Amino acid sequence: MRLHRLDITAFGPFGGSQSVDFDELSAAGLFLLHGPTGAGKTSVLDAVCYALYGSVPGARQSGQGQHLRSDHAEPGTRTGVTLELTVSGRRLEVTRQPPWARPKKRGTGTTLEKAQSWLREHDATTGAWKDLSRSHQEIGEEITQLLGMSREQFCQVVLLPQGEFARFLRADAEARGRLLGRLFDTQRFADVEKRLADRRRLTEARVREGDEALLADAHRMQQAAGDAMDLPELRPGEPGLADAVLSAAALARSTAREQLTIASCGLRAAESAQAAADRTLADTRELGRLQQRFAQAHERSALLAERACAHREAQARMERARKAEAVAPALELRDAADAEHRAADGAQEQARAQLPPRFADSGAAGLAAAARRAAEELGGLDSARRAEQRLAELGSERARLDRQERADEEALQDADAWLAGWEERRAALESAVESAQQAATLAERLAVRRDPARSRLAAARQRDRLAGEAREEEQAVRAATDDAAAARTAWLDVREQRLKGIAAELAARLTDGEPCAVCGATAHPAPARKDAGHVDRETEERAQSIYRTADERRALTERRLGEAQRALATAEGEAGDAPVGQLAREAAELEEQYGRAHDAAAQLLPARERWDAAERERERRVAAQQQAAVGAASRVAARDALDRERRSLEEELTQARGGADSVATRAGQLERQVALLTDAADAVRTAEQTAQRLKDADARLADAAFRAGFDTPQGAADALLDDTAHRELQRRLDAWQSEEAAVRAVLAETDTAEAARRPAADLDAAEREAAAAAARVRAASSARDAADRRRAELDRLSARSAGAVRRLAPLREEYDRVAGLAGLAAGTSARNERRMRLESYVLAARLEQVAAAATVRLLRMSSGRYTLVHSDDRSGRGRSGLGLHVVDAWTGRERDTATLSGGETFFASLALALGLADVVTDEAGGVGLDTLFIDEGFGSLDEQTLDEVLDVLDSLRERDRSVGIVSHVADLRRRVHARLEVVKGRSGSTLRQRGGG
Fold first, then answer.
1. How far, in Å, CA of 188 to CA of 196, rounded?
2. Cα 448 from Cα 451, distance rounded (Å)
3. pLDDT at 323 over 80
4. pLDDT: is 804 or 268 the higher one?
């Protein structure tokens, strides 16, 4: 990589545009970048880094580039950096502009513009530049790929920072490891360490989990075995736990089987004793049952003897009832005949009471003949009844014709009156529809204008409000700007006054024998003194803090002003210049017109409906006229026919009515007479028949009672029993016979009689002995079941534990293997004698390469005295791997780099930085670094050493490199002719280029 040109505008301390021609500066190989403290030397390097990576090194980077803008720049000047360079044989130009708040083109305030980037490549064939990309991300990826370095690596390798490698030289192993890890990207080896550690923790947790489960099963086995098992005193994860648990489980299983055998023998003995006690109890119970049975039979026999008389009476009552059952049918038949006769006689008397007196003594034959005569007369009235009904219908039809005639006349008159005003009504309806249609069209046009008028009125009101807010914000911005300018002027005055007396402030920190931070001299013959008006650093910082606070307040008010102006511009664009009052009147007038038009348009649908209804009504009226004319002609003929038929029917009815008011009345009289005579004839015949049947039933009942042995029919009736009494009597007789048979059978049993002769059975003693034997069996059975459950539970848990041990064996082997690798990689294993981590081991190899490359230049800088070597010795109790020592050829001893003097530390650090740059370059893919920058430290060298250092730097040209030295040491201005001076002023810094090619 070779830099050609750098253009800076409004960047850092540079208020205007500055350019650096690196081709001219690099022609001599060495060039000097110098200037007073705070002038902006480091800002030139920041600009190079920002052009390549879009950010500046280290702590100077903040925000998104918004603090890179120079405070000295004009408001209309945009911050930008353009770098032209050659990398990998391609000539590129990178331009970057951070975001900035530019003044508005119209009005006051600022507008924030986004950051922009350009990447162009020079075409050697055409001699023109062609655009490659304008994307921040694409440009960053392209530059990183071409250089082969990240921003951090670039800042360490190309921009060798102030004091960074002196600290690296004297740092401990951890600090060196952090820097080398960033440069050589050894994070993958640290990831391997972490991966192994995580794997070790995971397998350890799984092994512990398995051991905890195994111990849990062991505790369960101990609980099941009682005192027959002792647990091993080991924790989860300790070796030998599995074997100890399995051995204890085997001993517990053996003990449980012995206890089960003993309990089984005890159970069999208890069961034999229980069987003997149960047999004795059964015999005693049987003897007691037979003795009780014999005693109960004697008691029942005595009770039967006492009830013998009652039993004989019941038998006689049952015998008389059986005889009376033969007379029961005749009794039932006589009762039915008597009831039937009484009912028929009552019906006959009721029927005769409804007949005229002339039929009081008539028999059944006379009453039937009178009924036939009345029925014949009734049959002759059917024709007259139909004629009478037809005459009523003719009257209804004549009345209907009259009603139709009156209705047709009224409808005809109404239709004529309505149709007379049809033309006038039609014209009015058409006019209403047309007016409503015009109003609807107008309402649509007004609706389109109404919403924009409302929006414009609202925007105008917001515009007036925002205009007042913008004026207030402008006043606040002017006040804040004046305050910030005054604070800046005061701060710059204080700063300038302090810089004038900075020599006295630096002299106050001088110590005899220690090098000066400015010139590096160890002798201080005439240090400067503070005068009466000296300004110290705290005073300057207070003034600067006041300025920053005022500037932040100014920026805040400018942002609020910008927001108010943007909102005002939006409102003005929508509302225009019209005043609010005018827009309000226009909107109100438009709203009123729209309301009237909308109300009128709402009548369009009702008007159309009224028009359609009027058309339908006109058609109905015309049809009614025509129908009334046709109906009038047909009614004349119908009326004449009805009159002729009515006269004929009236003549026929006069003959049929006789003395009654109507045919229906006469027919009703005859129908009632026929029904009464017929009912009376039937009732007389029925009464005569039932009287004869009652007489026959009395004769049959007397004969049946005599044959059954009863003196009278009433005696037979008294001996009869109903179903309930018969069943109850039969039940008593059957129960007596059953009880008598049962008592005889029990008294005849041999076993029962023999048991009665034996002593009384002692059932309580037998039951107590049987209960005691059963209790002994239950106790023995419980003991045997408990022993069997203990044996089964121990077998189950032992099998589960053995399976868990088998499953855990591969995991335990994996844990041992992973733990060994993790400890080896982390440097904690006993096999890692130097306690060197894997990442440290890789970095140690890189450090060896860096030390070898640095020694080549260190030998020249130190006139062959010093050599840098890598050491992997442990320091104290720490880990080894990243030690760095210096070998002194004068003494032949190897010592720590912290023992070097100030000047020796500088050139050793410089040699280390150059060696590191070579190794990182090779690591990055061999990209040539043709331009390097070294920042400060030359003031600590004497003249001879300075010459040797410069000779080494000058020798870098052998690899076609140019080296820029960043320093304010005055002696370098004589030795290095190509110089880039940074000149500091109140209006910002400027660059002045001298010498070179």
1. 12
2. 7
3. no
4. 268
Q: Rounded CA gap, 419 and 329, in Å?
A: 97
pLDDT in tens, 109-164: 788 888 899 999 998 888 889 888 888 888 888 888 887 777 776 776 666 664 56
Which helix or strand (DSSP H or E) is residue 575 part of?
A: helix 537-575
Annotate 437-465 with DSSP letters as a single string. HHHHHHHHHHHHHHHHHHHHHHHHHHHHH
State yes or no: pLDDT of 177 exceeds 80. Answer: no
Residue 94 predicted with pLDDT over 90: yes
Q: Extract the tokens encoding 434.
A: 């047309």
Tell me the mean pLDDT in the region 188-209: 78
Pairing of the two strands 979-983 and 990-994: antiparallel
Q: Are strands 14-21 and 90-97 parallel, antiparallel or unpaired?
A: unpaired
Tokens of 160: 């060798």
Phi, psi of 238, rounded to the nearest 5 degrees: -80, 145
Buried-exposed string 373-386: b where 16+ CB fall within 10 A, e elsewhere: ebbeebeebeebbe
| Six-digit token string for 263 | 């309990």
Task: Give the Cα-Cα-Cα angle 13, 19, 23 (nearest 5 degrees).
Answer: 130
Amino acid at site 95: T
| Residue 120, beta-bridge partner list | 93, 131
3-state secondary structure of 922: helix
pLDDT at 118: 92
Cβ 359 vs Cβ 680: under 8 Å = yes
Residue 40 in contact with residue 989, Cβ under 8 Å?
Answer: yes
Decide if 752 contacts 256 (C-beta within 8 A).
no
pTM of the model: 0.41
The CA distance from 440 to 604, in Å, is: 8
Amino acid at residue number 601: A
Name the residue type at position 268: R
| Amino acid (1-letter code) at residue 875 | S
| Residue 300 in tokens | 């029942």
- Assigned token pair, 925: 């893919």
- Predicted pLDDT of residue 137: 87
CA contacts within 13 A on the Cβ side of 809: 7
Instruction: Convert 259-287 to b/e letters by CB count within 10 Å (16 or more is b).
Output: bbeebeebbeebeeebeebeeebeebeeb
Find out whether 49 and 935 touch, Cβ atoms under 8 Å. Answer: no
Q: Under a CB-based contact definition with an 8 Å cutoff, are residues 652 and 384 in contact? A: yes
- SS3 assignment, position 107: coil
Kindly state the helix (H) or strand (E) to which residue 21 belongs, with its residue range: strand 14-21
Distances (CA, A) of 450 to 441, 460, 463: 15, 15, 20
In eight-state DSSP terms, residue 515 is P
What is the per-residue pLDDT across 373-428, written as a single tens digit (0 to 9) for each? 767 666 666 666 677 667 677 777 777 777 777 777 777 777 777 777 777 877 88
**Partners of 32 in beta bridges:** 965, 979
Three-state secondary structure call for residue 512: coil
Instruction: For residue range 510-524, list pLDDT tens digits in order.
Output: 777 676 665 656 666
